[in-house]
Amino acid sequence: MKELRPAILMCIMFTIICGGIYPAVVTGIANAVFPKQAQGSFITDKNNREIGSSLIGQPFSEPKYFWPRPSATAEFAYNPMGSGGSNSGPTNPDFLKTVGDRVKVLRDTGISGSIPADLVLASASGLDPHISPEAAQVQLSRVAKARNMAAEKVQQLVTMSTEEPQAGGILGAPRVNVLALNLALDGVSP
């Protein structure tokens, strides 16, 4: 009993510190310093209604929209509760069929030439909201045609929506947030 009492007290103490005090302090600091990010980086429409997050991809399949990376989440696309990759390797027959099906869908929309990998492969989380500028470029003519817009106008929106690498160009690569780009498209008249 003499050895058990300190162990129980330490467990209670560390539960209070690590499970209560520390998360409360970190959450308070995050809300004070980065309020938008701490609350989920939500994007709102004209009526101030939350329509998505800039951190989580959303499904778009209509020709008039830019399409995101495929989701690796199973039952419902881009469900953050099922975040995680498929863990299927490049020799897995199911994986190869899935990628082949995605390539076929893109080819059926008129995309010729090389298809950027991010249009047929899910990210590690399966929730990536970004595509590469190259992935936006191969979709540009389809979107312009479906919206009856000049390709140059759509190109301007893609260019304006392209985010540079983080930390002054050190981290990552240029990327396009698909939700933000599609919202910009909806706000522009042909």
Provide structural commentary.
The protein folds into 2 domains: 1-38; 40-186, no CATH class. α4 packs antiparallel against α5 (151-161) and α5 (151-161) packs across α7. It is extended and about 75 Å long. Strands 3-5-4 form a 3-stranded antiparallel beta sheet. Strands 1-2 form a two-stranded antiparallel sheet. It is built from 7 helices and 5 strands, in the order ααββαβααβαβα. With 190 residues, the chain is mostly helical. β1 (42-44) and β2 form a beta hairpin.
Give, in spatial order, the strands making up the sheet with the most strands.
Answer: 3-5-4
- What do the pLDDT scores average to? 88
Q: What is the multimeric organization of the chains shown?
A: single chain
Distance between the termini: 78 Å
Beta-strand percent range:
5-15%
Shape: extended
Query: What is the N-to-C order of secondary-structure elements (H for helix, E for strand)?
Result: HHEEHEHHEHEH
The total of helices stands at: 7
Rounded radius of gyration (Å)? 22 Å
Number of domains: 2
Low-confidence parts lasting 5 or more residues at pLDDT below 50? none
Question: Biggest sheet, open or closed, and with what strands and sense?
Answer: 3 strands, antiparallel
The secondary-structure class comes to: mainly alpha
- Roughly what percent helix? 40-55%
How many β-strand stretches? Answer: 5
